[in-house]
Amino acid sequence: MACNTVGCFSLFFQFILLIPLVIFSSLFLPTTTAKGFSIEEATVYDLQLAFRRNQLTSRQLVEFYHKQIQTQNPVLRGVLELNPDALAQADKADHERKANAPGTLPALHGIPILVKDNIATKDKMNTTAGSFALLGSVVPRDAGVVTRLREAGAIILGKATLSEWSHYRSNDAPSGWNGRGGEGKNPYTMDGPCGSSSGSAISVAANLVAVSLGSETDGSILCPSGSNSVVGIKPTVGLTSRAGVVPITPLQDTVGPICRTVSDAALVLETIAGIDVNDKATIKASKYLPRGGYAQFLKKDGLRGKRLGVVRTFYGFGNDTFMHDTFELHLKTIRQKGAVLVDNLEINNIQEIFNDQSEDIAMAYEFKLSLNAYLGDLVASPVRSLADVIAFNKKHPKLEKLKEYGQDLMLIAQKTNGVRELKEAVLNMARLSHNGFEKLMITKKLDAVVVPISFFVSILARGGYPGVTVPAGYEKGAPFGIIFGGLKGSEPKLIEIAYSFEQATLIRKPPPLRKLKV
Where is the Amidase domain (predicted)? Predict the structure, then answer.
C-alpha cells in the first residue's frame, strides 16, 4: 500500500536522492562488471547477452542503476521515487533465468524500467503525477501497460519525474517541474528537458536506466526525447492502454517507450501494446497490431523504397544555418538509403490548424471529465475531483509553489460545463486532420513525413497519429531530434524508417562528464 501521509515515504527517498554529490558517476563508479561487461549505454540486446554469458545479473544491474541515481539524481531530478522491491524482483528474475532454457524468456525479462509517475503501480510506490495532492492515494490496480511489463518479467525500478499533472496545471510552470521533485535538468545542457515525460528522457539519456515509459498528449514523448538525445515512440492512440494512467484527454493520451535506441523502443512497444478490457480504445486499435510484434521491423534497409514527404513549413530555423545544413545532410542520407523524398509539400489547411482553438477546448472539457473519473476510481485518495485538487493547491501553496506557477489550466477546465462545445471541438479536430495531414499522406502516397522537432507534434497529437523521434545532432551541445510521422497504425513502417536512419547515422552520444552543482 502507498504511504498515506505527505512525508512518510519521502523521508527515505529524499535521503537517497538528495545527497549533494557533485560529479557524474562515471568519474567514480565502475561501469564495467568484474567479468568485463560495460553497462553504460548497453541496449536490451546487450544486457540479455550478458545475462546468458553470466557476465551480469539483474541484481547487479539494479544495484548499478541505484548508484547512478544516487550520484546524479540530486541535480538531474529524473527519478521521483525508487521501488523498494526492485532488488527482490531482480533476484526473482535471476532465479527464473537459471530455471529456464536460454532464449525462452521475454525480451524484457530481468530488465529494469522506469515508468512516468502518472502511470499507476499497485505496489509500495506512489502514483501522483508529481503532485502532493495525490501523495498517499491508493490505486485499484496496476496500469494496463505495467501489467504487461510485469508479465514479461521486467523490473519496475521506480517512478520517473514529469511536468506536474503532465503539464496540465499551469502555462507558467517550467517544463519538467513538479511539486514533489522540483525541476528536471537536461543532462547535456543543464537547462529545461522539454515535455512532460521529462524524467523518463533524462534518466535514459544519463544512464540511470536503460529503458522507460512516458506518455504523450501533445509532444510529451517526442519533445523530451529529441531534446535529450534519445529515441521516443508516440504510438497511435489506443495502441497501448491508458487504463490506470492519470489522464488529460482520452482523445489524445497515449503511452509509449523512451529508450536510447530504436531497437529497445520497438521491444518495449511490442511488450506494452495490445488489448486491455479497461481501455475500450485498445479494442478498436487492435486491428493495427502486427503479427509477430515490432522487432521484426528492425531492418537496416528499412528506408529502401519508402516515400517520405518533406513539409517545409516545419523547417523554420530562422537564422540557424547549422540545423538547416544538418537536416539537409540527413535528407541526403535518407535518399542514399533508397527512400524517395517528395519535397516542398504543404498541408493545405495549415493556417486554419494553426489558428484553431478546438484542441484547447477539448482538452479543458476532457481533463475535468476524465480526471474526475480517475480520482473517483481510486481505493483511497486525499482528493476525489478536480475541484478538490484546486482546493488542495490553494490550501498548500508552499508545497505546490502556487504563487510562482498558479493553476490556470485547471481553473479553466473546472469552469467547463455541458458537452455541446466539446462535441463541436472534437468534430472540428477530426475534420481538420482529415482534410489536412491525412489528405496529404493519401494523395501523395506517402509512407511517412520527415520533420524536425516542431509544431508538427501537434499535428500528430490532434489526429491520434504515431511518430518516432531519433537523435539528429547537437547544436552547441544541445541535442535535437528528427521525427518520422505517419497515419494511424503505421508503426511498422515508422520503425523500419527510424531504425534504418539511426543505423546509417549513429548520432547519439552520452552526456558529457561535467561537475554538477547542487
Answer: 61-454
